[in-house]
Amino acid sequence: MDDQPKAEGEADKKIVHVYPLVKFSDMNDDVRTEAIELSITACEKYAQNYEHAAKAIKELMDKKFGTFWHVVVGEGFGYEVSYETKSILYLFFGGNLAIVLWKCS
């Protein structure tokens, strides 16, 4: 065991990811890359309003990849959805901000 005393506050540090951390996706690489870029841009633009961020992501995905996209942006939620194969992305950005997008027609 490590008996070394820890620096003050070291045990209380959170790991904050400043890059997108993909937890699950079955999208092909091109669509996933585009979806991640769209999501990051929207979440940075609407950092104070997750509802606007989700709406922006949905509208852009509908325009680029056809209709019936659904998006959830927020912190501390669970989800269970039915989706079309090759159309789901679950990622974290900027620490605890989670983004789930999927297509279901």
What can you see in these coordinates?
A 4-stranded antiparallel beta sheet has the order 1-3-4-2, with helices on one face. It is built from 2 helices and 4 strands; from the N terminus they run E-H-H-E-E-E. Helix 1 (29-45) runs antiparallel to helix 2 (50-65). The longest helix is centred in the middle third of the chain and has 17 residues, at 29-45. It starts with 20 loop residues before the first strand and ends with a strand. It is an alpha+beta fold and 105 residues long. It is 31% helix and 23% strand.
State Rg. Answer: 16 Å
Q: Percent range for helical residues?
A: 25-40%
- Strand content is 15-25%
N-end to C-end Cα span? 54 Å
H/E topology pattern = EHHEEE
Average pLDDT works out at 89
- Side by side, the strands of the main sheet go 1-3-4-2
Main sheet specs: 4 strands, antiparallel
Using the alpha-carbon principal axes, give the shape: globular
Alpha-beta content class: alpha+beta
Low-confidence stretches: none
Annotation, overall tally of beta strands: 4
Count of alpha/pi helices: 2
Give descriptors for this structure:
alpha+beta
Short synopsis of the structure:
The protein has 2 helices and 4 strands, in the order E-H-H-E-E-E. A hairpin with a 3-residue loop joins strand 3 (88-93) and strand 4 (97-103).
What is the topological layout?
Layout: E1 21-25, H1 29-45, H2 50-65, E2 69-74, E3 88-93, E4 97-103
Antiparallel strand pairs: 1-3, 2-4, 3-4
Helix pairs in contact: 1-2
